[in-house]
Amino acid sequence: MAPGRCGHYVQRADKLLPPCLIRYCPPRAVPDFFCPSGAVRRAPSELTVQQAAQSRLLTAFLSALSITAAFGLAFWWNLDKPFWAGFSALVVSLSTLGQSIQKGLLRMVGTVTGAAAGLILYFFWGQLRWPMLVMLCLYILLMVFLLLRSRQSSYFFYTSAIVAILIVVQSRGGDTPFTVAVDRMQETLLGILVYTVLALLLWPRS
After folding, report:
1. Per-residue pLDDT tens for 95-113?
2. Phi/psi of residue 52, each to 5°?
C-alpha cells in the first residue's frame, strides 16, 4: 500500500491507515459513513490539550519578552531604527527553536543580499531616477520569480526584495544608502540574536 500524505501508517482495525485519515474522524464530529474504513474515533487527551495550551502561552511570553528586550537594547544603544530590531524578533518567533533559527538565518542573509543589491543599484544609477527604477523593477521581478519557485528559501527572496526597495527609496529621501544598509543589518541581527539567546536560556524547544 502506498503511503498517504502524512507519510506514515498506523494500525487501526487490522488495516493500515495514514494518520491524516484518522484525524478526520474526531468524536461525534462527522457521521460514521464519512470516516475511512477501519478508522477509530478517539477523544483528545487532556494532557495533550494542556501541553498545547502551555506551549502557545510560553511562545507568546517569549515573543513579547524578546520584542521588548530588542527595543530596549536598540534604544539603549541609540540605534537609528529600533523598529527593525523589534520586528525581527517578532517574525522569528515560531513554535520550535529550529524553525526560529532557520527563519532568522533566511532573514539575515536576505537582508545582507538586499542591502548589497540596493547599494549596487544606487552606486551605478543613483543620479538617474528612471534607469534606477527600471533596474530595481528587474531585481524585484527576479526575487519574486525565485520566491514562487522556492519552498524552503522563499522568505530569503522576500526579505531581499523588501530591503533593496527600502534602501533605494530612503536614499532618494536624503538618507545615505550605506548608513541605511548598515542600520538595517545591525538591527535585524540584534532582533534575531535577542530572540535566539532568550529562547536558549529560558525555553529550549526542539
Report:
1. 788 889 999 999 999 999 9
2. -65, -45
